[in-house]
Amino acid sequence: MLRILKAGLQTSIQDGGRSGWMQYGIAKGGAADPVAMQLANSLLGNPPHHPCLEITLTGPDIEFGCDLSIAICGAQFDLTLNGQSIDNDQGIAVKKGDHLAFGPLQSGARAYLALSAETVLPAAFGSLSTHIQTEFGGYCGRALRAGDEIRLRNCRREPPRQLSNDYQLRYSARPQIRVIDGAEAEMFADTARELFYRTTYSVSAQSNRMGIRLAGNGLDTAGLPQMTSSGLCPGSVQIPPDGSPIISFVEGQTIGGYPRLAHVISADQHLLGQLKPHDRIDFFRVDLDTAIRILRDKTAELSRLIE
Amino acid sequence: MIPPFTLRQNGDAALDICFDATPGESLSRVVISLKNTLERAVQRGDWPELRELIPAYQCLTVCYDPLAAQEPVNVSLQQRIREFVAETIVSTSFPDAADQSQGSQIVVIPVCYDAPYAPDMSAVCAHTGLSQSRVIELHCQPDYLVHMLGFTPGFLYLGGLARELQCPRKAKPELRVAAGSVGIGGAQTGIYPQSTPGGWQIIGRTPLSLFAPYREYPFIARPLDRIRFVSITSQEFEAMKQSAANTSNPVKETT
């Protein structure tokens, strides 16, 4: 068992998400930073998409009700176990009654707490992920609150393992995000496209798992034709009438009607999960072949790490 | 008639099959038929790289794993999809493809149009110049076609709203519209499955759940089904809301 003593801003159960339900309006969901989640699981010998706790901006306090091992990857918090400082990126043995506390956030936005145990929760659409916006899945369809108790099964201890220094994740508060042309890129005036690539946008506080809203130079959408709504994929950079880009994210709507100027390449989408309000981002345009090559390289590197 | 189509990249992990025809019932039949045919092919294992199919008014979005798609195939995914669509369109006589035999249903959705559930009824009456009873009558008249599901879980895109009922969206969307709210936005009508922000004019509310994740079929309708709204009293609304049975068994008739 795992008891939430203090909830944090948004602590939820996340795994690899759900597949095949977008035609019913259900986004894939799952970890906002699946790379960090997979690394955390790998340190405990878990399958890559084993359910974890996704911890956002302000972390929780947790008490463990059994002996097991844990690993934390992703955002860097000041972590303590029973008051003693501990680090990200390594397997740590915990005993029944131990108290894990997430202190101030140092970098990134979301940390993943992996457990060498199974969380006893009902699956919805083949996944334990909490769909925060629509309130289903995970633990009662919502972020965790103080007093919640998550039942665990098959708790076990794992030999301590550590990620090599080269692969410990550090996040910039000003990342460069690579994009390819969006489905409607050619509808935009050249001046609007140039302005988009020249602008350093800042992440709005209204961002969430559904979409990342950006503030900066508004783009002119006046001459754009009205569109008929169609399938919208995560990573799409939509430009609504007010001209401020919105990046569709892991719980994004599945049908959209705003023109898409750009699309965050699949290989960089995990970086979106580490953006926090007021972080700044620059977009860098690549072509489709480059996007696929980067994805192949990153995927191969991750597989080497987690095998 | 077979509408011409083009393929369009939708990010680095999806292709849109876009038909050059006006949205409407016959085009939706083409898109849904194609989706069903492709879905069956995926289930047979023919397209291991495909992940999601999202039908919409004019496009079928095909999401794929770009790395799986690069595997030994010596024809590109684009080309294979192009051939598949062309073959499917030639071998089936759209628009009356297999889907009709699948039996689309009329899903009856009870709606209470009374004041507490219809905060914008007076605005709609004022805009359209119609009485409340005429608004209800017109809204309950058509069997609306479900073009697709999407946006949020279980949201239905419906076609067939009477022209007299069309009225503009609110200038400033409400922060919270109750789940089950039935609204009009421009030329569309629909129901909010979840309590979300919303900019449509709300003229009623249904006691049914449009999305119940743990129900056997978690949604209330499928594409190409038809929706018929039926006016109920607030007493009936409360009674249905309280009866657990109504959420799992909406009234359905087979056409």
From TrEMBL, chain A:
Residues 23-299 form the Carboxyltransferase domain. The keyword Phosphoprotein does not apply. GO terms for molecular function: ATP binding; hydrolase activity. The keyword Nucleotide-binding applies. It comes from the Bacteria. Keywords: ATP-binding, Hydrolase, Nucleotide-binding. SMART domains: AHS2. This is Biotin-dependent carboxyltransferase family protein. It comes from Microbulbifer pacificus.
From TrEMBL, chain B:
It is an enzyme of class 3 (hydrolase). The keyword Cell cycle does not apply. Gene3D superfamilies: 3.30.1360.40, Cyclophilin-like. SUPFAM superfamilies: Cyclophilin-like, PH0987 N-terminal domain-like. The keyword Metal-binding does not apply. It holds the Pfam family CT_C_D. GO terms for molecular function: 5-oxoprolinase (ATP-hydrolyzing) activity; ATP binding. InterPro entries: CT_C_D, Cyclophilin-like_dom_sf, PxpB. It comes from the Bacteria. Residues 5-221 form the Carboxyltransferase domain. Keywords: ATP-binding, Hydrolase, Nucleotide-binding. Its EC number is 3.5.2.9. PANTHER family: 5-OXOPROLINASE SUBUNIT B (PTHR34698). NCBIfam families: 5-oxoprolinase subunit PxpB. This is 5-oxoprolinase subunit PxpB. It comes from Microbulbifer pacificus.
